[in-house]
Fold each of these.
Amino acid sequence: MSGEEEPVIPVTTEEQVLTTTTPVPVTAPGKVPVILTPSSGTEGGVESWPLRSSIPIWANLSTRPREMWTLTLKPSEASRYDYKPPRDPRARHGQHLQRSRTMTPAQFLIFSKHPEQETQAVSRAAEKMEASIHVLKEKLHQKHKRSLLPSDLLSTDVLSKIANISGCLPYTLPPKCPTNCMTSKYRHITSVCNNREHPRWGASNTPLARWLPPVYEDGLSQPKGWNPGFLHNGFPLPSVREVTRKIIEASNEAVTEDERHSDIFIVWGQYIDHDLAFTPQSTNQPSLLGEADCQKTCENQSPCFPIQVFANDGFPINMDCMPFYRSSPACATDHHGVLLGNLSTLNPRQQINSLTSFLDASTVYGSTPAIEGKLRNLTSKEGLLRINTQYFDNGREYLPFVDRVPSPCAQNLKADKVERIECFMAGDSRSSEVISLAALHTLWLREHNRLAKALKKLNPQWSSETVYQEARKIVGALHQIITIRDYIPRVIGPDAFNQYIGPYKGYNHTVNPSVANVFSTAAFRFAHTAIHPVIKRLNAQYQNDPNLPNLHLHEVFFTPWRLIKEGGLDPLLRGMLATPAKLQVQDQLLNEELTKKLFVLSNNGSLDLASLDLQRGRDHGLPGYNEWREFCDLPRLRTETDLVTAIENRNVVKKLLELYGIPDNIDVWLGGIVENILPGARTGPLFACIIGKQMKALRDGDRFWWENSNVFTNSQRHELRKYSLSRLICDNTDVTALPLDVFMLGKFPEDFQSCEDIPNINLEAWQETFQQEFTCGLPTKVENGDFVHCSEAGKSKVTYSCYQGYKLQGEAQLSCTKKRWNMDPPVCQ
Ligand code: HEM
């Protein structure tokens, strides 16, 4: 939706800046004005960046006489640092498909980490800004023969100018938060203005929060492990592949099953992770000027940070390096919303979360207006989401396919070659990554439409927008309830839950809910160790079905066709309900399906999830294991004896010391996953702390948290409490019996209940009477937009908004006074 009453993000155009900066001042005492004269036009097919005029740059070199500098950014430099439109794996795949029908695992990773448009714009701006600073730093270094930090030479004013021209400024200035029906009743799709004093807290496309400052090898942006021979605490970091091989990797048969939890417990974790965090990665396109191609290079050259694969390392494919793209930098801001990121030692490189941090079902609705616009069925009067119009599952809906085809998802090689089954489209772009994840996305699509139809029946006077927003609000609340009430206590255990989360005490506007870098890059990846290498599909009696054999994990990556052509959702869900999860065991961490066959759909390459996790932590400059223990008030572990108190497997402890030399250097993800599991939990104390703190922040810092007063009525809250994941499955599939608590592993039939006995929500709590709402009569519907109503201080009001791509003209909010609307409705153009 867009319109005048949308949060307003200030944008200063390039032209505006250039007119204010043309004359070059030469007077500021103790400062050197520098002119950056960037190149324009293109050379050799390389797009140059859009700095088309000089910018006066003041260098704070008090010991130097004043002098004038001209920095010219040559096309070759531009090509080195400039953002290239990402190689679109979908478009490329179109050609590729005609040749070989499959993509390499690395291309699948690019596809699954492919940023959507708005994220691309943020990344592009941040990369340009970082490149500008880098070029300036190098030039000044050449001239002054000493290392200079950007903060030595750039005033805030100049930084703002660079930020503006690079395109960062709009993403760093605080947006205005309007107050109307829409903004007080419903969360914005980007979650901007959830916190009215800190409007970007938790919003999509903002930096991941830092709970501890990052550790980069140059203090600014170079990952840990970037410079060969660089020592950390006197020791070099071991290669991530070596760590994987020696400590993490386990054969597919080395699975100890979890006696308490079912596989859906793990899948819910991945689904919820995709509600909270998506860290886009840089994508580069090798130029004609000799720039590195991250698909091929074995050298650390930004944005490539390849993972070395050694001879005899057991990797299935003969390759020297596994491709790795660094995560995109963010246009970072400090807590006042002032631009500071990427510019000084105090403000080193940050990474972006392109999703809303909140538990808000962004997996269903998206995190930007553009995605939301694609997912909605705007022609329906019932506020529905779009569905797949080609295929149905026993009459029930599937997710729609992505709009850019052919998509890279695998095809059934035995099927008719003309029939293609594309990747699914959902609120998060990774929905087709594994079919079990796609199944959860599908359940929620069905639930939204089911709820919306029921709400419209109860409230025929509601506009389509109202029905959509009310159903979205319920679905969001259900995500929160299932996660905080049912899932998290089992992950971190009852004691850590009480210690770090505790009972809800109301909204706290001082809490920053943004997802923390350490949470998404390390702690919440804990469950990569609990992924079962085998997927089961079961019949209505929860027995194996000869037509649906067990599959290895690598056979279900990016394969929506298996859902559609191999029995629909039900057999897969039954498999998740009745199969035990894999247990995280210190010497059985990730199975070969993940360390040797990640995203392998044919024999044209391979990836290793454990190495990606470790390398990602280093890419983001996450401090080491002991720093995080200290952050959590856990004792630092300095010696082998100390380590054994936290990690009982002595063999693992020995290998950790052999590889890292010193406990401080242990990568935090690894340290977290090898710790002894807490009682009643599925993580050790470190990750219980980080996950607990994050969940508390997501709950207490959310103005729209379902338990916050005025979000739902008492009777609505009473109904919502009855809800469960088992009810979701009952209402949206033909599964008729399942455990009441689906995260707990049960035996069929004794532990399974009939859907008839599983509590349900009574939606009458959402029924409103016509008189209550519209004493002024129904507001006029506008073309290309819609309205929602609310009542404030006994007064009826409506707020209009426009569909994505249309701009609202006129007043957005109308009030009902003396039985008449106070003005004409606006128009959407
Ligand atoms: C078959 C199941 C799964 C697969 C194939 C998978 C695969 C991946 C991949 C390829 C990445 C990106 C790695 C990188 O380049 O940094 C990733 C990230 C992540 N995964 Fe998983 N994962 C699975 C299950 C899970 C589960 C069960 C959880 C948690 C309960 C989880 C949590 C995360 C988190 C938090 C991230 C970081 C997200 C971000 O910030 O972008 N994953 N996963």
Amino acid sequence: MHGTAATASLSSAFLPFQGFRGSLDSTFRLQWRKPKKAHRTLITAQIELKPPPYSLNSLEPHMSREILEYHWGKHHRGYVENLNRQIVGTELDGMTLEDIIIASYNKGDFLPSFNNAAQVWNHEFFWESMKPGGGGKPSGDLLYLIERDFGSYEKFVEEFKSAALTQFGSGWAWLAYKANRLDVGNAVNPCPSEEDKKLVVVKSPNAVNPLVWDYSPLLTIDVWEHAYYLDYQNRRADYISVFMDKLVNWEAVSYRLEIAKSLAAGREREEERRRIEEDEDRMADSEAIEMYLDSESEDSETD
Ligand SMILES: [Fe+2]
């Protein structure tokens, strides 16, 4: 997602999600070390402040220019700047943002950079979850899965709103795709089951996001007070309703779902390929043992 900041397409909001799978195994765990004193030429931390994909006044009257100027221009910017200061010269420097999140989540034993890294990712994802003239009802495969997994679109909205409303204090509510996930250290459910390959609504405190459970996020709403207080004061429920009715970018959510399903299918193929290879190796080993035993027995008969 980073490196092409302002011009990155919607697809780039999800593609880096593929990156951490290969680099972090289930035993991955980091010990936090203080940043090394960095020589000027070695400074590489450059997580960028990605702007929303629309002008700051284009969500009005549902989300004001003023709140976006604070929310994106100060809060989001602050997370980016803090993160770059924290990771420069450390082992996290140079990783993708997604890898930094998983590594610094550290199986629930957060490293200092986790909150800033996750908040940078969450805010980019949040901006891209909205669009001017959004809201309404999704269509196609997304609607089919929503109706299959929640009973109806209305029941999904009820569950999503409830998650957003009942997240105590600061945090986020999410629609996510929960696929079969194997051998994943952070996962809530690391084994495939009947419960997988489905849409779920989850909420998370502070900066935590579903990437750390290895789910594929599809939609999010920021329910930190800084996201709505200037426009809605303490009326979080009104803010959530307006978000669903007027702001959600369902095209973005549908696109993310296609990417998530494609990633899950790729993983399944990889698992199957690995399983077949292991079976073949086992078979070759047992044939070799049989041949050895046969030759031993022929030798003893000759003796
Ligand atoms: Fe926020």
